[in-house]
Write a structure and sequence with these properties.
With 457 residues, this protein is α+β, with helices and mostly antiparallel strands. It has 14 helices and 23 strands. The protein binds ligand EPZ.
Length: 457
């Protein structure tokens, strides 16, 4: 067994392993051109790995990206007695037959900055009758509470105890039972929580106001392969009929549309031309509409999508939303490109309350971005989350120049890299390890696209 991204892999790869404290010295001002390959989605692969805990036989997951979030889930599974074998070329074999309870400290030590431990709850409650969750991390893009998760688990009958070291959950005698649940907001994580718990609960679960992101639909496909019975209606309602046992699965992850959108924005920001192999149109329809309105051009091909500027960049007004809306993960790299559009763009963030803070560093590089902390609230908004909203007003075009910046979170960090590549002069982008949470072989890919940089530290 070896970790997906280990020192030995790094030695065999042209890409140096990026420690969190490492920095990139980037000499910008040249377009990124060439081809990058995107593999499976971080936001499916990590959840499908957790689903393997529910099977009574081995699972095989394909197209798993070499990112540190996958390594975190792998360590957490191993702490819980799951055998994980890396068969190479993105294939993981997961054997849950030795699953055991783990101590809070062990979980804490392996969870790192990830929020994934919360999704272990349902499967562990079925398997072992108890589960522990340490303090959860994830990107610092808002409070990121877990109240929807805990309320859903309580609806299945779980008992939730808050302890100084974290949270302990236990299943009632006789196990968890199906429930009627309405989420206050179509949360991705809470929908996954309900799916991973309901498939083995006794009776039927009806989940209303569910998230319907493509990665969730792919998780449903994984669970169906395992023996689950799940159906859905177009109005965000999912029905799950609990079953007594589930088997392992063999599944190829859906492609990473967030990574694909990130490279698309890199082409726009640097005036480059990037073919993103593995990207598909269907899951990116909303992104592609905005890309076109912003002056981007794309060619949909059999094996990927080619992205470049079509004409002069144009300002756009965008509001982030749950699927099928414009994803919150897309706005950060898009904003970098919008600094080069002639006119005023508005990006209204409605999913996280602190996902525009990264724009301060873009201003340091010459951008003109003002963040309005209360957004532009509309009483007609489809979800009542106004207290969380923010809006960025981007005035362009503003030439960018090099600066010394520190990566704040995954997508913000990627955005700094492309801003530095678009800028004239030299930039230092510090703390690049965070980017490895979700971008596979980022340094190799940048090199292949003609980026000029050195790794420091
Ligand atoms: C997932 O986070 C993704 N992470 C995020 O990607 C993505 O931005 C987000 O979904 C939205 O698409 C993973 O899949 C690992 P949510 P998740 O629950 O599940 C609030 C990236 O960069 N909320 O849909 O944590 C929450 O605070 C990452 O790849 C509660 O209030 O997102 C947020 O405002 C970042 N209580 C909103 O709901 C809860 O119990 C949406 O969160 C849960 C969530």
């Amino acid at each position: 067994m070896k970790p997906l991204v280990s020192a030995s892999d790094a030695a065999n790869s042209t890409e140096p392993a990026a420690a969190p404290g490492q920095a990139l010295v980037i000499r910008g001002g040249r377009p990124l051109t060439g081809r990058v390959d995107v593999k499976g989605a971080k936001n499916l692969a990590t959840k499908a790995m957790v689903a393997a805990l529910l099977g009574e036989s081995e699972s095989v997951l394909r197209d798993v990206p070499e990112i540190s979030d996958v390594n975190v889930v792998r360590s957490l599974l191993e702490v819980h007695g799951v055998r994980v074998d890396d068969e190479g070329d993105g294939v993981l074999r997961l054997d849950p037959s030795g699953a055991v309870s783990a101590h809070m400290e062990e979980i804490d030590a392996h969870a790192g900055a990830s929020r994934i431990p919360i999704l272990f709850c349902g499967p562990l409650l079925h398997l072992l009758g108890e589960a522990f969750i340490p303090d959860l991390g994830g990107c610092r893009i808002g409070d990121r509470p877990i109240d929807f998760h805990l309320d859903a688990l309580r609806s299945f009958g779980a008992v939730v105890e808050k302890l100084p070291s974290g949270i302990r959950l236990s299943a009632p005698e006789g196990g968890l039972t199906g429930a009627n649940i309405e989420l206050p907001y179509p949360s991705v994580g809470a929908t996954e929580q309900v799916l991973l718990t309901a498939v083995r609960a006794k009776g039927t679960t009806e989940l209303r106001n569910a998230a319907i992101e493509p990665e969730i639909m792919d998780l449903i496909a994984v669970l169906q392969k395992m023996g689950a019975i799940i159906s859905y209606e177009p109005n965000r309602v999912i029905f799950i009929e609990g079953v007594d046992r589930l088997e392992g699965y063999d599944h190829r992850c859906i492609f990473d549309r967030n990574e694909a959108a990130s490279w698309a924005c890199a082409a726009l920001a640097t005036d480059g031309d990037i073919f993103v192999a593995g990207a598909k149109q269907q899951e990116m329809l909303t992104f592609l509409n905005v890309y076109r309105k912003a002056g981007g051009s794309f060619d949909i091909q059999e094996d990927g999508i080619r992205f470049r500027r079509g004409e002069a960049l144009k300002p756009v007004v965008v509001e982030t939303d749950v699927h099928p809306g414009f994803m919150t993960d897309w706005q950060q790299p898009l904003i970098v490109a919008l600094t080069q559009a002639a006119g005023t763009s508005v990006v209204h963030e409605t999913v996280y309350e602190n996902r525009l803070g990264f724009t301060q560093a873009l201003n340091k590089m010459g951008a003109d971005i003002v963040v309005h902390p209360h957004g532009f609230a509309s009483p007609e908004r489809r979800v009542p989350r106004r207290e969380l909203e923010q809006a960025a007003v981007i005035n362009g075009p503003t030439p960018l120049h090099g600066a010394d910046v520190v990566v704040p979170d995954l997508r913000g960090g990627y955005s700094y890299v492309i801003a530095a590549l678009a800028a004239e002069g030299e930039s230092i982008v510090r703390n690049i390890g965070i980017i490895r949470r979700g971008y596979e072989k980022i340094l190799d890919k940048l090199t292949a696209l003609g980026a000029d940089f050195d790794v420091l530290g």
